[in-house]
Write a structure and sequence with these properties.
Number of strands of chain A: 0
Largest interface: A-B, 71 and 71 residues
Oligomer: homodimer
Number of domains of chain A: 2
Largest sheet of chain A: none
Strand content of chain A: under 5%
CATH superfamily of the largest domain in chain A: Tetracycline Repressor, domain 2
Number of helices of chain A: 12
CATH class of the largest domain in chain A: Mainly Alpha
Shape of chain A: flat
Structural class of chain A: mainly alpha
CATH architecture of the largest domain in chain A: Orthogonal Bundle
Helix content of chain A: 55-70%
DNA sequence: GCCTAATGTCTACACTGTAGGTACATTCAC
DNA sequence: GTGAATGTACCTACAGTGTAGACATTAGGC
């Protein structure tokens, strides 16, 4: 699969580098979850001594995790920024959603990883979306400070939606239905009247549609704020 | 600290129960972070054999984590629901924010914990806010299905904001300032013009204010959606 | 050739979650 | 009371984990 056959002499196991290690780690996490990522297992996958990873790729497990997150964010595809700012925001949202759904196991890293990593020290790749959105908003007429607030609201909502959607999403829909019904009927009707009535709606969840609706609400609010000044 | 001196005979170490264990675990996580929570260390704090925990409190570490999350959510204080629906939503938001800031180390559990726990199987305590907000929205005039969508948007935004705020928040503000300046000046001006200009605004972050602004945007959008049907 | 620096490999330590067994205490039926 | 049954406590053991440190091997420069 991987095996970037570097053309030096010591090509026996295929020379190791940071990129290869990180990609292997991402594969591992995608397939077997975050907990499956251990230095030893990673070494096993790469057919290398676990300690070799420390020399080439990372100073420790944490750094591997950070590397994975960065790798996933690098999958975000850039856009031409010629359309209306609202459609641009919409596109960005769907693009982030797309990438996150491709790597659901990595999402916890994305949302909680940068915790306690001060903004100034984050890798440039992580800051690009921020800069991009600031640009869009400022060109749309927001003042720089307002643009920052709006960015936070927008991105906050975005991450929130993605977390929501990942919770809603369950592998097997049929099992999901059974579980849901069982679970809901367990709840006392007097305490959870609305929730129990909404069982059918809970079952057909369309994440993309849901995201669009949320953004529409946000944009309506934003438009209003923009015109009121 | 804990030591609920139960009045039986074998009161030497003070009889163990699930509540005590969970509270001790929460303390541990609050003070030393999620990684510090191990069954062995928890046993040490409680002066019990680690294996005793398995008998009394939980089937494993995962269950302890779930218990912690539940415990934190139980700290949410209920409201009288007599005011305007918008003020109610605002209160709920601030209340959740308050509790999360009290237990920042637990937030990752709250946002990613219920992942892959189907909605129907979550503990009733976790579902109460959902039911509550559905009620508020339906009484405000939303149809049940719309109320569900709005709930998702609202809660998604809420969790997103909290994650954002926890990222912004750093222990020592002075160090924060130094780091930020250092970090931002490292970024090439041509690629990050807006971000570098916003350094001062990045420094004084008021989470409560920020949350309020976001909610205002949301509510403006919601009001518009509500009147358009 | 040899010297230096980089790289690979192995061992070892201090941890982790938790299955399984054993010794003790308490409780209940009679 | 006695005996059985049940619950509790504790220990040991196993298969993992991250990673520091020492050692062997190799590559490159001269």
């Amino acid at each position: 699969m991987e095996h970037a056959g570097n053309g030096r002499q010591k090509a026996r196991p295929g020379r190791l580098d940071r990129g290869i290690v990180m990609r292997a780690a991402l594969n591992l996490v995608d397939e077997h979850g975050l907990e499956a990522l251990s230095m030893r297992r990673l070494g096993q996958v790469l057919k290398r001594d676990p300690m070799a990873l420390y020399r080439h790729a990372a100073a420790g497990r944490k750094e591997v995790l950070a590397g994975i997150a960065e790798l996933v964010l690098d999958e975000l595809q850039p856009f031409a920024d010629d359309t209306h700012w609202q459609t641009q925001l919409r596109r960005i949202a769907h693009e982030l959603r797309r990438v996150c759904l491709l790597h659901p196991n990595v999402v916890p890293l994305l949302v909680t990883g940068p915790l306690s990593t001060p903004l100034g020290l984050r890798p440039a790749g992580t800051l690009k979306p921020l800069e991009q959105i600031l640009g869009i908003l400022i060109r749309a007429g927001f003042g720089p400070a307002d643009a920052l607030h709006v960015y936070r609201t927008f991105y906050g909502f975005l991450y929130g939606h993605i977390l929501n959607e990942l919770q809603e999403y369950v592998a097997d829909p049929e099992e999901n239905e059974a579980l849901l019904r069982l679970g809901l009927y367990r709840l006392p009707l007097r305490d959870f009247p609305h929730l129990r009535r909404l069982a059918p709606e809970l079952l057909d969840y369309d994440g993309s549609e849901e995201l669009d609706q949320g953004i529409s609400i946000l944009l309506a609010g934003l438009g209003q704020q923009l015109s009121h000044r």
